[in-house]
Design brief:
The complex is a heterodimer. Chain A is built from 21 helices and 16 strands. In chain A, the strands form four sheets. A five-stranded mixed beta sheet of chain A has the order 2-1-3-4-5, with helices on one face. In chain A, strands 13-12-16-14-15 form a five-stranded mixed beta sheet. Chain B is of the alpha+beta class. Chain B folds into two domains: about 70 residues; about 80 residues, Glutaredoxin. In chain B, about 50% of the residues lie in helices and about 10% in strands. A four-stranded mixed beta sheet of chain B has the order 2-1-3-4, covered by helices on one side. In chain B, helix 1 runs antiparallel to helix 2 and helix 3 crosses helix 4. The chains are: A alpha/beta, B alpha+beta. The complex binds flavin mononucleotide and iron/sulfur cluster. Flavin mononucleotide (FMN) binds next to strand 9 and helix 20 of chain A.
Chain lengths: ~500, ~160
């Protein structure tokens, strides 16, 4: 009987040596005359256990991890004889508590099989949402999305249904669906995981969006820092086209949708939707003043839906299982599930998908298991480089948009970056200003120049020159940036700076 | 010199082919610039007039786009590009020490190429590998949990030719 094994080919798994593990598995199995069937799946997002090897055994998937190449020979012996005896044995993967306790609506398929296999996708309820959508009118699809309560996952949490309604209602010759796959926030990787582990879900969501608003063209704007996602998406688009999910007659329905993958070029600001549109048009990524909203005059001046990867992916769940099903998850006005990304100095980092409402502490302590270094955690930055740094007194805040806004913080794209007690918060504040200076599109003076001044001021604070006066200046700068910036880059950079000042003032004096 | 001449002619042909492919593509300037850089290693200043002319833009506009994006370069990089993630998740795991180590070892700052032409060092802000920081990218391969010893080993593989 041959051994049927799975080794992920996801960026993080590869970065931890998954290809070496696969190569040694093949070599060692051949040396032992062991028949081996080695499949390359996507990751389940249990990154702390990568490379995570799975064995199909008596109808179950048994996990071992983290596996490195050196562990393979002994592991193969164990697999052929008594799997449970091996020290890396984790039991059935679906019963690992870290995974079992999650509510995986969007990431349920991640890691199950070959991400590019269309049959695999279809066998796991893939394209059910699209099939349902093809039987509905455009307005009925938009209604379902509105009723589901789905809000944008890119950061601003704008209701997806309202945006789609505007595009549906807007007159335009050529409407567009643009997927924002720029995922620039440090501490985030959920878009990447979805695109690498379950790319057809994104394609399906975009096709549904096209049907809903009457758009026949779509673009995925993917950051260039994701070479693996790029290869997978290119192949997925080609296969979807060959199987008539794209083209001018989707599955014989008479409806059409064309999709193109575009690469960013290393500019954080191109994640801002209007800068992204300028970039797609072949220009510098400059933020546009609103109005007009992209929904009315977006790409090439046409009505355009711009949605995050996870927003578009969630639409497939809404259309497959119904708006009420989706709406049943969540808390307050935050409906559905949030993909929390545990990152930075954390022992068990990875993707945790849960209904909104769990506390930050439960995520970091119960799932994360504390810091990687073993030292006490001191600060947690939630929501990317424009998000606040939170001290322990704030960690009981539930993960919900309104609850976070109430403490002057934001959930953003769900990135959670943990720092231990060696962190110097004045340095973190300085970095926030430095990052803004580097990535500002340059349109507003307070953002472009204020951030450069901010770095200088913080350098003097760190050097203990006139600390009180400099901190006064810093507060003024933050106020100016907040009031005089067109977008959240300049407008929210004061968040991490002020939170560092407020909660960690000892690091500044 | 004859070799350079042949090289530059081959380069011009490539650029012309890329222009032909993207000139009618809506918003085709970025894909065009990526294609030029992928095949020539950079976007030579000499390519700008042809690109501008074909797309109906001024040279200043094309130059403005090239200079706006961190990825595009006007001079070729070294044989390999090493990017160190400088963003928060990696900071939380010691990337400041890692970058200091690499700069000292290569004797260069960000944006520069080592004296032997082997490695160009760049800063990058997030590689999407934030659960297993610190991260570096060497050409198209991303590496996780990189400390000084690991990056030394990666660099040593380059000079001994063990890596592609
Ligand atoms: C500086 C800045 C960076 C942003 N980066 C991203 C990003 O990388 N990905 C994303 O989806 N949204 C990003 N956004 C939010 C987008 O502007 C926009 O709200 C989002 O793409 C809309 O899609 P959604 O409604 O599905 O979230 C960013 C916004 C700002 C101000
Ligand atoms: S705030 Fe900064 S990034 Fe945003 S538009 Fe103004 S200058 Fe550009």
């Amino acid at each position: 009987m041959s051994l049927r094994l799975f080794v992920p080919r996801d960026t993080t798994a590869l970065a931890l040596g998954a290809d070496e593990v696969a190569a040694v598995l093949r070599r060692e199995a051949a040396a032992r005359d062991l028949p081996l069937e080695l499949l390359r799946n996507g990751s389940r997002g249990l990154f702390w256990l990568e490379p995570l090897l799975e064995l199909e055994h008596e109808g179950q998937r048994i996990a071992f991890g983290p596996v490195d190449a050196a562990a393979v020979p002994a592991l193969l012996e164990a697999l052929a004889n008594d799997p449970a005896a091996h020290p890396l044995y984790l039991g059935p993967v679906a019963q690992i508590p870290w995974l079992q306790s999650q509510q995986r609506l969007t990431f349920g398929r991640a890691g199950l099989g070959d991400p590019l296999c269309l049959d695999n996708y279809r066998s796991l309820q893939g394209f059910q949402g699209l099939e349902n959508a093809l039987r509905l009118s455009d307005q009925e699809i938009v209604n379902a999305v509105t009723e589901s309560g789905l809000r944008g996952r890119g950061g601003a949490a704008f209701p997806a249904g309202i945006k789609w309604q505007s595009v549906l209602d807007a007159p335009g010759e050529q409407k567009y669906i643009v997927c924002n796959a720029d995922e620039g926030d440090s501490g985030t990787f959920a878009d990447r995981l979805l695109m690498e582990a379950d790319p057809y879900q994104l394609l399906e969501g975009m096709i549904i969006a096209g049907l809903a608003v009457g758009a026949t063209r779509g673009y995925i704007y993917l950051r260039s820092e994701y070479p693996r996602a790029r290869d997978i998406l290119e192949e997925a688009i080609a296969r979807a086209r060959a199987d008539n999910y794209l083209g001018d007659n989707i599955r014989g329905s008479g409806r059409g949708f064309e999709l193109e993958l575009r690469s960013g070029a290393g500019a954080y600001i191109c994640g801002e939707e209007t800068a992204l549109l300028d970039s797609l048009e072949g220009k510098r990524g400059m933020v546009r003043a609103k109005p007009p909203l992209p929904a009315i005059a977006g790409l090439f001046g046409q009505p355009t839906v711009v949605n995050n990867v996870l927003t578009l992916a969630a639409v497939t769940t809404v259309m497959a299982q119904g708006a009420a099903f989706y709406h049943d998850f969540g808390s307050g006005r935050s409906r559905g599930t949030l993909a929390v990304q545990l990152a930075g100095n954390i022992r068990r980092g990875g993707l945790v998908e849960l209904a909104y409402g769990a506390t930050l502490r439960s995520l970091v302590e119960d799932y994360g298991g504390g810091t990687y270094s073993g030292r006490p955690a001191r600060a947690i930055q939630v929501g990317g480089p424009l998000g606040a740094y939170l001290p322990e007194s704030q960690w009981d805040t539930p993960l919900d948009y309104e609850a976070f806004a109430a403490i002057g913080a934001m959930l953003g794209h769900g990135g959670v970056v943990v720092f231990d007690d060696t962190v110097d918060m004045a340095q973190q504040a300085r970095f926030a200003m430095e990052f803004c200076a580097l990535e500002s599109c340059g349109k507003c003076t307070p953002c472009r120049i204020g951030s450069v001044r901010g770095v200088e001021v913080l350098d003097r604070v760190v050097a203990r020159q006139d600390t009180a006066g400099q901190i006064e200046l810093l507060r003024d700068l933050c106020a100016t940036m907040e009031a005089g910036s067109l977008c959240a880059m300049g407008g929210l950079t004061p968040h991490p700076v002020r939170s560092a000042l407020q909660y960690f003032s000892g690091d500044f004096s | 010199m004859g070799g350079d001449q042949a090289n530059s002619e081959a380069g011009e042909e490539l650029i012309a082919a890329h222009i032909a492919r993207f000139r009618e593509v809506p918003g085709g300037l970025l894909p065009l610039l990526h294609a030029v850089q992928d095949s020539l290693g950079c976007i030579p200043a000499g390519a700008v007039p042809a690109i501008a002319g074909a797309l109906g833009l001024s040279r200043a506009e094309v130059h403005g786009v090239i200079s706006f994006y961190h990825d595009f370069r006007s001079e070729p990089a070294g044989r390999h590009v090493l990017q160190i993630c400088r963003a928060e998740a990696c900071q939380a795991m010691g990337s400041r020490e890692l970058e200091a180590h690499v700069k000292a070892r290569l004797g260069i700052d960000y944006g520069a190429t080592s004296a032997d032409g082997a490695v160009t060092l760049e800063a990058v802000y997030c590689l999407g590998n934030c659960a297993c920081s610190p991260s570096v990218r060497l050409d198209d391969a991303i590496h996780a949990r990189v400390d000084a010893a690991r990056v030394d080993a990666l660099l040593a593989e380059l000079t001994t030719g063990a890596a592609p």
